[in-house]
Amino acid sequence: MLFSARSIPNMLGLFRIVTTPLLVWLVLMPEPVAYLWAVALLVLMAISDIADGKIARHLKVVSPLGIFLDTISDKIFVTGALIPMVQIGMLSGWVVFAIIVREFVVSGLRSFAAAEGVVISAGKLGKQKLVVTVVALIWRLLAANATAGGSVSTLFGGSLVPLLNLWPLMIALALVWTMVSGLEYLWRAWPLLRRGWSPRSTGD
Questions:
Q1: What is the CA radius of gyration of the chain?
Q2: Quick check: 168 pLDDT over 60?
Q3: Under 8 Å CB-to-CB from 80, ≥6 apart: which residues?
């Protein structure tokens, strides 16, 4: 049987991956309402990312495949929002570059640690980073909708616009969280990096 309650966590991970092209398309659409659909999809993706680990632990179905899907799916859908935002001028390229580079560095550190027989699990800052980043992206999309005269400004009569215009502050906060959480991983992997820096003797 391909689907059962025990496969729900893996299905949620696949959901985030296969719907990322839809997220990219919604962000690139030159229509204010598309930004709201992108917000709704981002919220669903974030909720599923939080839920799948809890469901897996509750059902006692934590698996290597589930860990793999959970690890890559959040990076895929966040990148799927960031890159089109740069393309249409919503975000600065260097901000997105810094966030993506951090993901490469952390993935590399975890792979290096795994090769050394050490598991570097996600810390609190790493888990919080996803939430802060998604909130910042949602904030930016809502601001874009309001600026374009979309339903956000219509429904609230422009009263939310000053608050939404603070989106650069939220993006900056997400960037800080990204860098600090990346440094946390680096700090935890530092003993392994120092040990691996010196060439190992292969014997005579």
A1: 19
A2: yes
A3: 20, 21, 23, 24
Size (the chain), residues: 204
Could you tell me the CATH number of the domain that includes residue 48? 1.20.120.1760
Domain hosting residue 23, numbered range? 5-195
Average pLDDT over residues 170-179: 93
User: Is the residue at 202 inside a domain?
Assistant: no
In terms of pLDDT, which residue wins out, 48 or 155? 48
Structural domain total, the chain: 1
- Read off the tokens for 137: 């992206």
When the pLDDT of each residue in the chain is averaged and rounded to a whole number, the result is 83
Distance CA 133, CA 78 (A): 8
